[in-house]
Write a structure and sequence with these properties.
Layout (H helix, E strand, L loop, with lengths): L1 H6 L12 H11 L33 H24 E8 L2 E9 L4 H12 L7 E4 L2 E2 L16 E5 L21 H8 L12 H11 L2 H9 L11 H19 L7 H10 L6 E2 L2 E2 L4 H15 L11 H6 L1 E9 L5 E8 L2 E4 L7 H8 L1 E8 L4 E13 L3 E7 L1 E4 L4 E4 L9 E3 L6 H21 L9 H14 L20 E16 L7 E7 L5 E5 L2 E5 L1 H5 L9 E13 L1
Parallel strand pairs: 1-5, 10-13
Antiparallel strand pairs: 1-2, 3-4, 3-5, 6-7, 8-9, 8-12, 11-12, 13-21, 14-15, 16-17, 17-18, 17-21, 18-19, 19-20
Helix pairs in contact: 2-3, 6-10, 8-9, 8-10
Protein name: Ubiquitin carboxyl-terminal hydrolase
InterPro entries: Papain-like_cys_pep_sf, Peptidase_C19_UCH, Ubiquitin-like_dom, Ubiquitin-like_domsf, Ubiquitin_CS, UBP14-like, USP, USP_CS
Enzyme class: hydrolase
């Protein structure tokens, strides 16, 4: 083509005109091409793209063969352009007060595609668009060729746009952006405790006791001015340190360093400050538990209060009445004592907590017999005579092994229930007191499952009221058998049924080594494993697997919370 142009005198390079093929054909046929390649009728237009080259060919200015050549060469492209020019048209669309110009319509596509274009422009969904065309409203699957829509035509559209989604007035708030007190609620558990060097025994004890809200309430009431005169300075300091640490745990989700508490604990009980090769030694968690409760019981005692002289005893104290019998002489006596935990003794016959508790309530002791004038063996059998709000059980897993000079561990598996009934371990006197509340509890649970409950007659209710008035206290000493009652509140009574709320486990072969962990049930019913500064959520199945039988974590101390009924 370039050679052909040179032959006819066009030496300048030329560019593509707006409609090259059609205009070129018309110009060649009408002889408008000059020796400079300019178009006389359209001087602003130039023809031929720079990249097209043709073989040398001599064509005269008025030769019809040149037009034939062009048609042969460009006819396919010309047909394609002609096709597109007839299938794509532009129209304007009037919607409400807006006019959208030059909206393209592809005549080869169904009208639904056109409606989607309008949706992008107006926000009116296709199903709500009403577009007026020849014959009525434009349907999604109509044939454009039958509608008579022409280029440049103005179409009318009606329809309501979707409401624009507004951004929320309050943006998304992430847990880590909340104040720490609110983070505790959002996370569902309180903070862990840093291990300060073999202090896992202390951390696990604190986490279990921290789960008792009534104990925290008593600690909050404790002040410097409220110190009892009988309490020594170190006991007072340890109580204050416990109160402050519990407050810090309640307000934080980040691990807490119990440095102040640890310092005072070692000052009060120097055995917890023992060193080995310059490192603090591992200690027995049960000993830490017992010593801390004893200290708090002394500090939180209120001699001037007739309602609750000993808050810790009311929460954790178990009153035992024991019968002591000498088989040789027939001597018999009884005694009453208060303890903070029951013992589950482990032997080859013990597979379950109930069996271990029976063994723990029986013991033999050697003492002088006045009748025989010498030492004799006495059998001691104990029964529970008053129940606490929180019942603690210690698995007696450790014994002194003389060969290794350390507390060795019994690894035997002993199962324990999530719900514990201690009715069989109670004295006859206490059982009579538990019968009525247990019946109320059974009735309440029966109603939950839709069971019919026999209503008591008025005579029975009057009899129960008299019995309740006659009981008064759990024992002859005048201690209350029910929880302390605020004015206007209903009286609550024990049922002898307890729910598991905390487990302190030990992993290892010796009490003075290994690792202690606390497992605590939260108020929302979920379990958290407090492995020092790393709290982890757990399920109930994980808790029941802590019964022993291997080198895994096994229960050493378990704590139950009483089910009570309102009367």
């Amino acid at each position: 083509m370039y050679s052909a142009i040179k032959e006819i005198g066009c030496t300048d390079e030329v560019e593509l005109c707006p409609r090259p093929l059609m205009r070129l054909a018309v110009q060649m046929n009408q002889g408008f091409l000059t020796n400079k390649g300019q178009n006389k009728q359209f001087p602003e237009a130039k023809i031929f793209p720079r990249a097209i080259l043709c073989p040398p060919l001599y064509i005269s200015n008025n030769s019809s063969s040149f037009f034939s050549f062009l048609l042969t060469l460009f006819l396919p492209s010309f047909s394609i352009l002609l096709f597109f020019s007839t299938t794509m048209i532009t129209v304007s669309v009037k919607w409400q007060k807006e006019l959208f110009k030059e909206v393209e319509i592809d005549m080869t596509q169904p009208p639904y595609v056109f409606k989607c274009q309008l949706f992008d422009l107006t926000g009116v969904p296709p199903e709500r668009q009403k577009i007026m065309v020849k014959g009525g409203l434009l349907k999604d699957d109509a044939d454009w060729s039958t509608l008579g829509v022409k280029a440049g035509q103005k179409l009318m559209m009606m329809g309501t746009a979707d409401e624009i989604v507004k951004s929320p007035e309050k943006g998304t708030v992430f847990v880590e952006d909340l104040p720490e007190e609110e983070q505790v609620i959002a996370v569902g558990h309180t903070a862990g405790l840093f291990n300060l060097g073999n202090t896992c025994y202390m951390n696990s004890t604190l986490q279990c006791l921290h789960s008792v809200p009534e104990l925290k309430s008593e600690l909050i009431k404790y002040t410097h001015s409220g110190r009892n005169n009988d309490v020594d300075q170190t006991s007072h300091m340890l109580t204050i340190a416990t109160r402050d640490l519990f407050n810090e745990l309640d307000k934080s989700v980040k691990p807490v360093a119990p440095m102040q508490f640890w310092m005072v604990l070692r000052k009060k009980y120097p055995q917890f400050g023992q060193l080995h090769n310059g490192v603090f030694m591992q200690q027995d968690a049960e000993e830490c538990w017992a010593q801390l409760l004893y200290t708090l019981s002394q500090s939180l005692r209120s001699p001037g209060s007739s309602e609750n002289p000993d808050a810790v005893k009311a929460l954790f104290g178990i009153e035992l009445i024991s019968r002591i019998h000498c088989q040789e002489s027939g001597e018999e006596s009884s005694e009453t004592e208060s303890v903070y935990s029951l013992k589950c003794h482990i032997s080859h016959e013990v597979n379950h907590l109930h069996e271990g508790l029976k063994h723990g309530l029986k013991s033999e002791l050697e003492k002088a017999s006045p009748a025989l004038g010498r030492s004799a063996t006495y059998l001691k059998e104990s029964r529970i005579n008053a129940l606490p709000r929180y019942l603690t059980v210690q698995f007696v897993r450790f014994f002194w092994k003389r060969e290794s000079n350390q507390k060795a561990k019994i690894l035997r598996k002993v199962d324990y229930p999530l719900v514990l009934d201690v009715y069989d371990f109670c004295s006859e006197e206490l059982r009579k007191k538990l019968d009525a509340p247990r019946q109320i509890l059974r009735n309440e649970e029966g109603k939950k499952f839709g069971l019919k409950v026999n209503e008591k007659s008025s005579a029975d209710k009057e009899s129960d009221a008299k019995m309740s008035d006659a009981e008064g206290s759990s024992n002859g000493g005048g201690e209350p058998s029910v929880a302390p009652m605020e004015e206007g509140e209903k009286e609550t009574q024990m049922t002898g049924i307890y729910d598991l709320v905390a487990v302190l486990t030990h992993k290892g072969r010796s009490a003075d080594s290994g690792h202690y962990v606390g497992w605590v049930k939260q108020e929302n019913g979920k379990w958290i494993e407090y492995d020092d500064d790393n709290p982890k959520p757990r399920v109930e199945d994980d808790i029941t697997k802590l019964s022993g039988g291997g080198d895994w974590h096994m229960a050493y101390i378990i704590m139950y919370k009483a089910r009570v009924v309102s009367v």
